[in-house]
Design goal:
Layout (H helix, E strand, L loop, with lengths): L2 H27 L2 E7 L3 H13 L12 E7 L13 E4 L13 H4 L2 H7 E8 L3 H5 L7 H15 L5 E5 L24 H4 L3 E2 L6 E2 L15 H4 L9 E3 L5 E7 L5 E7 L18 H23 L1
Parallel strand pairs: 1-2, 1-3, 3-5, 4-5
Antiparallel strand pairs: 4-10, 6-8, 7-9, 8-10, 9-10
Helix pairs in contact: 1-9
């Protein structure tokens, strides 16, 4: 075989490999999140495992979803390497009805969490994990969709995102509350102090200006309200650095759920590279590669 044919064969192989490599690199971009969930009881952790299995099925707008690589960090477990995770999820801080929240691990790792913390934080007065396993159940326009959106949004930024639900059920002091947000060793204290209030709210309102944000995908005001105590805490809407995505309808000036303002309208499909080819572009790559290979083969046959 002549050197020219050798060269043409090598060029054909390179064209195929390049086209396939571009496709596989693109396909790998929309994969999964590494989710670190702060654990509680065995029953609670089992419910969250069920939630993780359902997460990739929640896609109301048909624009994609994420698998969760779920790891539990229980209060007495060794400190994880937080840089290995896209999001730290912290559930309801309560001590009843199958919950046994112990903030020890969080409070003992303030500095490590702060160091790994990225540019997205999601904070809510809603106890969606409690209602996921309770009266409301895994309803898409309700606890299921709320939790999936929250974790996916928080985990789709830079560094380790934070998703934290209410740190207690009762507006007044109660032994079943496990309040940690404003503890001196909390990584959230400095930004929340003076802006948190505790009251019950059934009327959760998605503001018009944030209703189309990916973090609210598939959710409605009706779906987030009337959970038989939908929310247990709220935030003053003038809190610096945050934006309300769910208002407290019965308490003007208060937000039920807040997110980092600069990232509020960000996506929920993982951290995206600067340029990701669209499906049509991927087809074009194969088409271009195919024409190139065909041209080379024709030259070889001559």
């Amino acid at each position: 075989m002549s050197n020219q044919k050798h060269q043409l064969i090598n060029q054909a192989i390179l064209a195929i490999a390049t086209t396939f490599g571009l496709f596989t690199a693109t396909a790998a971009n929309a994969a999964s999140l590494n989710v670190l969930w702060y654990g509680q009881t065995d029953a609670y952790n089992a419910e969250i495992s069920e939630l993780a299995a359902l997460a990739p099925t929640f896609d109301p707008e048909g624009d994609g979803s994420l698998d969760w690589n779920l790891t539990f960090w229980n209060p007495l477990d060794p400190t994880p390497d937080f840089s290995d995770y896209d999001v730290l999820a912290i559930g309801t801080g309560g001590g009843a009805w199958g919950f046994d929240f112990d903030p020890t691990g969080i409070l003992n790792n303030k500095d490590a969490i702060s160091t790994a913390r990225g540019n997205r934080t999601f904070l809510s007065g809603q106890d969606a994990d409690a209602h996921y396993s309770g009266q409301i159940g895994p309803r898409p326009d309700g606890p299921l969709g709320f939790l999936v959106n929250a974790v996916n949004w928080a985990g789709s930024g830079e560094g380790m995102g934070i998703m934290a639900l209410t740190d207690g059920w009762y507006p007044t002091a109660d032994s079943r509350n496990r309040r940690w947000w404003l503890n001196d060793r909390s990584f959230l204290k400095d930004e929340l102090e003076g802006y948190v209030s505790y009251f019950l709210e059934e009327n959760v309102v998605i503001p018009t200006e944030t209703s189309d944000f990916p973090v609210n995908e598939g959710l409605t005001t009706a779906g987030l309200s009337n959970w038989h105590q939908s929310s247990h805490a709220a935030f003053n809407k003038d809190i610096p650095g945050y934006l309300s995505i769910n208002d407290a309808g019965s308490h003007p000036g208060y937000a039920v759920t807040i997110v980092t303002a600069s990232e509020a309208d960000g996506g929920t499909l993982g951290e995206q590279p600067e340029s990701v080819p669209e499906p049509g572009s991927i087809f074009g790559l194969f088409l271009l590669g195919g024409f190139g290979v065909r041209s080379l083969l024709l030259r070889m046959s001559q």
